[in-house]
Amino acid sequence: MEETSSYLPRLGSMIALEKQSHPKDPADELSPVMQRAKDQMEYYFNNFNLERDKFMLRKYQETSNKIPVDVFMTFNQMKKLEISADNVLYVCSKSKHLKVDFGAKTISRIEEFKKDYFRNERSLRITGFPLDYTSNDLDAVLSKYDPVWIVPQSKFTENGEKLFNGNVIVEFKSEEDLQEAIKGIKDLNGVELQSEILSDFEQKIKNMKKSKD
User: Residue 66: what pLDDT?
Assistant: First the structure.
């Protein structure tokens, strides 16, 4: 099952952010299409997706965390990118979350997935990032807080193109790390963002739905 997206209102405390640039080795640069493929593959394997996507979780369990690349080549979002299975393996080898067996043509998570009922309490939903931000831009801003996963949220255009909608979900190892990230981001200047602990945000959404019933 693939990702769906919907508009969600901005909630929470105000945060400020400035876009940061870091020197990169040109050899590490991926083309825009290859970068989108890497981002999409990381999305399939992230903790939040595995907790809700029954198909991906089943494949993860059935293959003991060694999913054949051919499985992903059947997904609509990967088909739209029109890249080869070998290129998918290559971009996954560049991921800090994934590892590749080129001989067996399988892709695995580096860290074993474990169900965590308190994950959302250690995660932030941050909205308002510039729409032209890439996953590399997000990583440059947030990686200093040692997040477990940075998951960009998406919207789909009328022609089915998948675009960043300015929102991210960021999982941290502890509540202390989460609070430190909020304090650190507040000290930056630039684009205003809004942030809320993910469990609080989801509870508000549930309450809103109940009030409409």
Answer: 98
